[in-house]
Amino acid sequence: MSSQQSLRNLKSGLTLEFPQSLGVYDRYEQAQKSVDFLSDHEFPVENCMIVGTELKQVERVTGRLTTGRVAVGGLLSGIWMGLFIGLIFSFFGTGGALAVILSTVAFGALFGVIWALVGYAATRGRRDFSSVSRIVATRYEVLVEHKHLAQGRELLGQLPGHTTSQQTF
After folding, report:
1. CA 143, CA 27: separation in Å to the nearest integer?
2. Which structural domain range is residue 7 located in?
């Protein structure tokens, strides 16, 4: 199989030929429930897609960064890296395993602290907080191949709690 044909097959799995909107939902669980309901009623769900729309990035600030916190984080990260490398060396080395592990842990801890502090100093105080972020969709749209639109709408009309305001015409 050629690489172009593989790419075409991948794209075809994530696209529909003539997609039509079956419904728009505020939560992914609602869209998933609709597709599950269709599946339970023998609808050809392989002709459906759930598409997240109106994307936004959400960043949750988890704490303030200080030199001490950065150093401790670098220390712990370095210890883990040193332990990992020490274990690998001890498996394949001929010397004392404990000495190899302890020395790589110590070197990893030192390297981790220095690396973290240099990285923190390079920001020059422009980002003195830690955070986690993710991309989330504001709405979820269920798309269906055009030839199954009428059947899908008819079935979703029977779904308890499904409103016509969720359907787009």
Report:
1. 15
2. 3-59+135-166
User: pLDDT above 70 covers what percent of the chain?
Assistant: 88
Around 3, how many Cα atoms within 13 Å sit in the side-chain half-sphere? 0
User: Number of structural domains, the chain?
Assistant: 2
Same domain for 10 and 50, yes or no, is: yes
3 state SS of 93: coil
Residue in the block written with tokens 């994530």: 14
The CB density around residue 91, as the number of other CB atoms within 10 Å, is 9
Q: Which of 84, 83, 68 shows the shortest CA–CA distance to 116?
A: 68
118 and 143 in a common domain: no
| Alpha-carbon gap, residue 143 to 87, rounded angstroms | 51
pLDDT of residue 3: 54
Q: Can you tell me which residue has the tokens 């980002």?
A: 127
Contact of 149 with 47, CB cutoff 8 Å: no
pLDDT one-digit tens code per residue, 80-139: 999 999 999 888 877 788 888 999 999 999 999 999 999 999 988 788 888 999 999 999
Q: What confidence score (pLDDT) does residue 1 get?
A: 46
